[in-house]
Amino acid sequence: IALTLALCLAGVAVCYASPQMGTWKLNEAKSKFPAGATKNVTVVYSAAGDQIKVTTDGTNGDGKPVQSEWTGKLDGKDYPLAGDASSSRSYKKINDRTLELTNKKDGKVTSTGRVVVSADGKSRTVTLTWTTSDGKTATSTAVYDKQ
């Protein structure tokens, strides 16, 4: 009976796992970045206890490698962000396939974005908007394929 119950619970957990979870690789051909923008080549969403850990690996505008890490909940609250010009990030779950994100530096919003996983779960699109150093608004659209 215990084994049957454990298998049932494991099946339920797999069925209700977030489509955001897993490893995502940038599809550069489908993505659009302004000149000098950071490109996250790989993004990994993984469980970290009762929280989610998001690790990004990519290149900055000069082509140098960059990595960031964030661990928190999808509750709209700010959690520390390491390896990024911003000092914190919040994610807010809109629905099973959509997240909103906000990056802040010392409490001031530096960028906002939306992460949407496709209906088939095979790709995700991240649209990010920020203000450049000369005061203009910039937007990037990054498309990722599930690995």
State the share of residues found in helices, binned by percent. under 10%
| Helix-and-strand structural type | mainly beta
> What is the topology, as strand order, of the major beta sheet?
1-2-3-4-5-6-7-8-9-10
Output the helix-strand order. Answer: HEEEEEEEEEE
Q: List low-pLDDT spans.
A: 10-16
Number of helices: 1
Q: Distance N terminus to C terminus? A: 36 Å
Roughly how many Å is the radius of gyration? 17 Å
Overall geometry:
globular
Q: Please tell me the overall pLDDT.
A: 90
What fraction of the residues are assigned to beta strands by DSSP? over 45%
Model description:
This protein is mainly β and 147 residues long. Helix content is 10%, strand content 55%. It has one helix and ten strands. The chain has one helix at residues 2-15, and strands at 22-26, 39-48, 51-59, 65-72, 79-82, 88-95, 98-105, 108-117, 123-131, 137-146. The chain has a ten-stranded antiparallel barrel. It is globular, with a radius of gyration of 17 Å. Mean pLDDT is 90; it is low at 10-16.
